[in-house]
Structures are given as structure tokens and as C-alpha cells.
Amino acid sequence: MAHTLDHVMMRVEDLERSFDWYTGHLGYEEKDRHEGDGFSIVYLGPEEMDDAGAMLELTANHDDRAYELGDAWGHIAVRVDDVYDAYEELMAGGVEDYRDPDSCGGRYAFVRDPDGHEVEIVSRDHGARWSLDHTMVRVEDADAAIGWWVRKLGYEDTGRWEADTFANFFLSPPDAPPEAMDVELTYNYDGRSYTLGDAWGHLAVGVDDLHDAWDVLTGRHAETYRTPADCDDMYAFTKTNDGHEVEVLERSPDDDSLFPF
Is 120 a catalytic residue? Predict the structure, then answer.
């Protein structure tokens, strides 16, 4: 099942506030927008985003609901040339100080967007500046979680780091270019459990044929959370063993819109 990581979706309470934060501080531009019945969706990404790059999807419901972050989703990470320069730039722009590079050993840093979603800043020599490098999720059983991504989606283990109290595992689709987004699984050794919350929505994979991909997933006993038929044959959803939602959607380069509506 050939696919790429297409986007990561987050829910926000004030769409224009979040839109201004990502466009103003990270230089993102609007790639597409959809106004639904009671909700709005915006796709964002760097202006010079690579063809293999993933987008950020902001979803806002119009009922003034509040969201809980939970702790089963960790962060998105964005690429820069120099972590210190990028962090100082964000601080000068009025972003709130959260975890500066020195507190992270000089290798990375963290800020938060207006809704509290954590954004990691990492130094990379590939990809557009501020492009999405990876999305981190926390898992309760590392072997089972790695097995899910490898067995269900055919991912490959592209890097790992074992520390005294936790481990990080990076996975990506086969033959994915460096500019593509990875998935980072974080496993803490203390046996803790996590809550999903609802401020994070899903990861999405783009496929050539929705129904063929769904047949592969169901043949591998992936959870049939929302089938193509449930979604008017435009997309579908499964869930990982930890409950993280994964959207499956078909993209066509000939479509006028990024949205399959």
C-alpha cells in the first residue's frame, strides 16, 4: 500500500488567532480552506513546501467548545537551520518562552501555539524552513505500537534512541524522501497510561486508491473505525492500538481543491 504522510490535524478554539500565529511566526501560507456546516478547516504549510512535505490542518468548530490536550499526543516538530537563531526569532516576535535550546541540551527547543499544542524546533539540513519534520505520539507498549505501524501501514524503523527512562522510535513509509514527515513514538518505561484528549485530531496518509488501501488495511485487521462508506467514499479512518486516529484519503493532482468534498 503506497502512501505518504499527508497532514496532521489539530483542533483550535479560535481559527483566525491560530491562523495568524502560524502564518505570522512560522511563515505558513494557506494551501486551501473548507467551510462546512458548523466547522471550518484550513490547510497550512510553508510557501516553498516540498512535494513530499506534510501539511498542518487546523479545524475549528463553530460552537465555542473548549478542548482538552490530553497527553497521548506529544507535539509537531518543525525544521530550521539553527535552533538558537530560530528560537530567538520567535521570542523577538512575541512567542511565549517555553523550553529554550539550553534547557534541551542545545539540540532542540519547544514553543506552544495559542491552544497549547507543543511545537518542537529541530535543526535539519533538508526540507523547507519551518516544514513539518515529525509528529510525536506517546505509546503504552512500544513493541505493540511499532508492530502496528509496521504491520498495518508497512512503515520502516528509521531511527531510535534509548535513554534511561524512555525511548524514541522514528518510523516512515518505505522510500520516503527526507522532506517527508515521520512519526515519532515515545515510550516511557514507568508503565504510565495516557489520555487522548480532543485538541489533537489525527494523522493522515494520502493513498492512490482509497478502496484498495482500505482493503489492505482491513486485510491486516486494522480497526474499521470509519469506513469509506461511512464517509461518503471520500476518506476513511482507522485507529492505532493506542487509539490515535489515522485518516486515509485519496488525492488527485487534477482536483481543484485539496478537500475531497
Answer: yes
